[in-house]
Amino acid sequence: MSTEVYLVRHGETMFNQLNKVQGWCDSPLTVKGINDLEVTANALSQVHFDNMYSSDLKRAIDTVHLMKDANLVSDIGKIKKLPEFREVFFGTFEGDDINQTWDRVAMAAGIGHEDNVAKIINQVGLREFREATKRADPRHLAEDKDELDERMVRAIDVLRDVTKNEQRVLLVTHGDFIKTLSIKYWNKSDDKHDIIFPDNGSVTRGILHDNGKFEIVDYNVDAEKI
């Protein structure tokens, strides 16, 4: 049985608002974030889900509970947390200014000063971007492409195991993780160049097929248009 997966990006957080790097570190949802999520939750309130899941980071957990509480047609029990769906890990850069971080990554990639992440990725490629992030990290803890690819594959395997008898599920995860997952599994991506960053509260839809294949079929969609 194939499983339809609604990947929802968490709502806006304080670190999003302050333009800070937010990977495995956490910050609370803002008032705007909660208000925006209510729009998403109401748009999905009549969509039946067999289950709901989230990353194990609090901003995702808070988001999935908003989705659960607003849904009128699903009987969802305790939310299972899947740490494999955490955000990308940025090592020492966690909590730093985003533009300053990307500038340091661009310098490590050998392209000079640049703080536009899409321009950096499209100039050097996704693999070199991740490698440069690890090199620029003083402690070299940031996830590189191989580490992130391995975690994404593991995440899909875990999701396949927990959704064996489920036809449609909702899973709250994170912006860079959704984007990188889509670069890997969306046929409109070439696995090298950047794609638009998903909006807070947006829906990216994937299909886990019977044969084990995973694919993204809709990316960064306003929930009201699903």
Overview of the structural elements:
With about 230 residues, this protein is α/β, with parallel strands linked by helices. The chain is built from 8 helices and 6 strands; from the N terminus they run E-H-H-E-H-E-H-H-H-H-E-H-E-E. It has helices spanning about 15, 30-45, 60-70, 100-110, 115-125, 125-135, 145-160, 175-185; strands at about 5-10, 50-55, 80, 170-175, 205-210, 215-220. A 6-stranded mixed β-sheet has the order 3-2-4-1-5-6. Helix 2 (about 30-45) crosses helix 3. The chain is globular. The mean pLDDT is about 95.
Compact overview of the structure:
The chain has 226 residues and is an alpha/beta fold. The chain is built from eight helices and six strands; from the N terminus they run βααβαβααααβαββ.
Quickly list its features:
226 residues; alpha/beta; 6 strands; single chain; 39% helix; six-stranded mixed sheet
The amount of beta strand, in percent, is 5-15%
Q: What share of residues is helical?
A: 25-40%
Q: What's the overall average pLDDT, rounded?
A: 97
Distance between the termini: 22 Å
* Number of discrete helical segments: 8
Please give the structural blueprint.
Blueprint: E1 3-9, H1 14-17, H2 31-43, E2 51-54, H3 58-70, E3 80-81, H4 98-108, H5 117-124, H6 126-136, H7 145-162, E4 168-173, H8 175-185, E5 203-208, E6 214-221
Parallel strand pairs: 1-4, 2-3, 2-4
Antiparallel strand pairs: 1-5, 5-6
Helix pairs in contact: 2-3, 4-6, 5-6
